[in-house]
Every structure is written in C-alpha cells, then in structure tokens.
Amino acid sequence: MASDTKSDVTQLLKSWSHGRSDALEDLLPLVYEELRGLAASYLRRERSDHTLQATALVHEAYVRLTSGEPLELTDRSHFFVVAAKAMRRILVDHARRQQADKRVGAHQKIAIDDAPELIAELDADILAVHEALELLNQIHPRQAQLVELRYFGGLSLEEVVEVLDVSESTLARDWRVARLWLHRRLTSS
C-alpha cells in the first residue's frame, strides 16, 4: 500500500475518532481489500465446510467496529489490529453457537478406534486456540498479540515489527517461544 494511502487511512481514522461519521464512508474503499484478505486468512484456518464467508466476516467486523462510539484508533496499523481481534471474536462466537446447536441436536456415535482420525481432522479448534491465546495474553501480552497478528492476521514478521514497534530479533524470539507454548498447550488439552 502506498504511503499516501496509509496516511489517508490514518487521517480518516482520526477524523472519525473526532466525531466525523462520514469519514467511515471514505475509509471503507481504502481498507476493504486488506480486510477481506485478513478475513480470508482467518477462514483458511477453519474447517472446510465453515458457514461464514470472507465477505460476511468483513461486513460483520466492520459493523462491530463502527457501531456505537468512535474508537480511538491512532493509525492504520492500530485499525487492523482491532479489526483482527473483532474477526477472531466473531469466529469464536460463531463456533460457540455451532457447539450449542450440536449439544441440542442429535449425537453421533463413533468407535473409539476412529477417534484419532476424527481429532486429526478437527485440526486446531478455534475455541481452543482462542482460550489458549487468552491465557497467553495474561502471561505475555506481546506474544499473544504477535500470534494474533501473524496467525490470524496473516502479517509477516516485518509487518508486525511496524505494528508493534519492537525489534525484529525480539519478535522472532517471541514468535518461537509463543508457538512452542501454544503447541504444548493445545496438544496437552
């Protein structure tokens, strides 16, 4: 994205934060494709038969971000951090509703011998990842934010350096530690 577009986004966010509601109309065309890419990144990590589509996820996140009082968003990077969190919450809410619906409906019996294959198919359940990230956030907030931006947001390490304003070597170390911690957490539960 060109630097003049980045500054346009930052200026529109500041205008919106200061009460200019029409700034949102000008903002959406500038950020839509990136938001859609972010949503697609989230959904690639979901099961293949997921009922949400990237466009619906973008629209729901945008509605959540823009309804109510204007947020104090400092710049374009801050906007995408907040958007990534909104999308993750939407997916978590969706997964919780799906689980609640399954508890109400009929149960399917599986043979104990089929359990390992079923677990392998599920991959990383969004709820388990969410709960692990919440716990990591209590222990090490920067690592949790790094995981969210890289895993869910699809940002490169260089892009995260810009967003979090931390050295690349520090983030590379945090990334290794956070991935190991999450792997252990998710495989032990």
Q: What descriptive keywords fit this protein?
A:
Rna Polymerase Sigma Factor, Chain: A, 189 residues, Arc Repressor Mutant, subunit A, 9 helices, 2 domains, globular, mainly alpha
Q: What's the gyration radius in Å?
A: 18 Å
Content of β-strand: under 5%
Individual helix count:
9
**Pattern of helices and strands:** HHHHHHHHH
| Number of domains as seen in the coordinates | 2
> Main beta sheet, described?
none
Supply the CATH class of the largest domain. Mainly Alpha
CATH topology of the largest domain: Rna Polymerase Sigma Factor, Chain: A
Number of strands: 0
Shape: globular
Strand pairing plus helix content: what structural class? mainly alpha
Mean pLDDT: 77
CATH architecture of the largest domain: Orthogonal Bundle
Helix content: over 70%
Distance between the ends: 41 Å
Q: Spans of 5+ residues with little confidence (pLDDT < 50)?
A: 109-124
Descriptive notes:
The chain has 189 residues and is an all-alpha fold. It has 2 domains: 1-107, Rna Polymerase Sigma Factor, Chain: A, CATH 1.10.1740; 111-189, Arc Repressor Mutant, subunit A, CATH 1.10.10. Helices cover 75% and strands 0% of the residues. The protein is built from 9 helices and no strands. Helix 2 packs across helix 3 (54-66), helix 2 (23-44) packs across helix 4 (76-104) and helix 6 runs antiparallel to helix 7. It is globular. Residues 109-124 have low confidence and may be disordered.
